[in-house]
Amino acid sequence: MSEPSPGPGSASPTPESMDAFFRRLGSATEKLPKRLKQFAQYIAANPDKVAVSTIAELAEGAAVQPSAVMRFCQEMGFSGFSHMQKLFRSDYSDKWPDYATRLEQLREHGSDTPSALLAEFVDVGRSSLENLMVTVDPKALQQAVDVLARAETIHLVGFRRAFPVTSYLAYAFEKMEVPAILHSGLANMNMDHLIRPNDAVIAATFAPYTELTLDIAAKARESGADIVAITDVVTSPLARLKAIQLLVAELDVGAFRALSASLCLAIALAVSVGAQRNGK
Amino acid sequence: MSEPSPGPGSASPTPESMDAFFRRLGSATEKLPKRLKQFAQYIAANPDKVAVSTIAELAEGAAVQPSAVMRFCQEMGFSGFSHMQKLFRSDYSDKWPDYATRLEQLREHGSDTPSALLAEFVDVGRSSLENLMVTVDPKALQQAVDVLARAETIHLVGFRRAFPVTSYLAYAFEKMEVPAILHSGLANMNMDHLIRPNDAVIAATFAPYTELTLDIAAKARESGADIVAITDVVTSPLARLKAIQLLVAELDVGAFRALSASLCLAIALAVSVGAQRNGK
DNA sequence: GTCATTTTAGAATAAAAATTCCAAAATCAT
DNA sequence: ATGATTTTGGAATTTTTATTCTAAAATGAC
After folding, report:
1. Which residues contact B62 (CB under 8 A, 6 or more apart)?
2. Are A125 and B129 in contact (CB < 8 Å)?
3. CA A197/CA A220 separation, integer angstroms
4. What is the DSSP string of A14-34?
5. Is the peptide bond before A208 cis (omega within 30 degrees of 0)?
6. Domains plus CATH for chain B?
7. In this complex, which of B49, B120, B172 lies closest to A93 when CB atoms are compared?
8. Residues A241-257: pLDDT tens digits?
9. Helical packing angle, A34-45 and B99-108, nearest 10°
10. Among the listed ranges A102-106, A172-176, B252-256, which one has the minimum average pLDDT value?
11. Over residues A161-182, mean pLDDT
């Protein structure tokens, strides 16, 4: 079996992973001729179609000729469409929910069992995570990291449903030796006065918003500390405090949420802050 | 455009959805001849391959002839392989990460930014969630729910990295008015003696295991309480205590985990227990 | 064990898809 | 504007893939 080689003219190496492909797509699209750029944009918007379509179908979808598709593939470092499709197809299996397992479970047990409920939370969690990439504004995130990296001490404020988020942040910051204080609300003790002008606050709260969180955030604002808000909608009361907002639209199952997306955002935030403070 | 019709001989209707397909697969497999049954089993185990493989590839994977694949498809109510593949391909698009959004972000900002890191945690979180359906044994889960629903009081034990899990459980149980105590480790106060024989303990710990969690679990076992373990591998020290094990294989990004899967399991567990205690 | 029926393997064929090629159109440099 | 160069559209060709067909093997009834 002979390895396909990149087409002539372009010396670009063959992308070996989806990630590499999209990086290349991002950097090369600009300087592509009209029709190829047109197709590149179509691919960027519909990457899911590549693995399961023919050249003709994709060409029609992007309103270009099949031969343009061919040239595009070669430009991207593949020998042809089939070669490129192979990459997309190999990436495909990963994204499949494990129907076999779930079906077997449903067959052996009812559809009203704990594992059926778990399957639902899993599905919703996956969607919420994917959503996160859309709702979180990268600029705001970068800004949040900057502010937190600069802060003397980071205060973590979030109760009830949001407490897992702040407590995980506390763990992560401790591990990276970033000075952070977890406001626990314990014994109704007031920790507000610990917040100094050069500090920053991460406030997490979701509707229905916890009064205490808003209070502490307001106090922090008065003392001049920066506020990063992990919350659910732009109209959240934290907006009034000129907080940097990171939005998480967590979907519910019944009255509960899996918090998958919030935790994910929290840990990414923490690690970024840790990296910017320590290394770099 | 004319609809393909089922092959001759079989009067079975064409499955219109993945769900219908698998139902049919389940009920028909038994009475299929040898080679067709062999292929049916292969499909049940590798449904993700169908959309992105050729007949020849699938045939080889299942160690049957291409013509056997063809006969199988007709037996299932399709006109042929292409017809069946169409169903598998159309089911697919939902499950894709939103590359378009990520690309745009990467174009506007670098690849070394917080949002790039977030994207990584999102990806890993999705995989972990999917994994969860495989690692959690439905029988064990049902058993755990039974035990917890029967318990007088539920004790929640888990520190450091596992604390978000237990604190979220505490929130959920409170909301559903299930009597639960969150062991906080606060002031090193010993809450062990609160655990009575008719209680149950949910112990969450991941490698490297927290000593305190294991201690409390051991004390609980002595006093006769049941133990449900949320942990990462079967060889976890909690296994020795004859705990009911719920396994979560959370993937890392660097030294950190998103906890998405653990939280998901926790909330599904909590809601099931709540439902079984209150309603039903 | 013999015959009828079902099932299988593999070659033969038909269909569909990918790839190449080249003349025409567009773009660019001068 | 003119000629050189790049890009494009679409038909022609090649390759791959799906499907059909048939003789042989296996199975089952008697």
Report:
1. B38, B39, B41, B42, B43, B69
2. yes
3. 8
4. PP-SHHHHHHHHHHHGGGS-H
5. yes
6. 18-90 (1.10.10.10), 100-127 (no CATH), 133-277 (3.40.50.10490)
7. B49
8. 888 999 998 887 778 88
9. 120
10. A102-106
11. 93
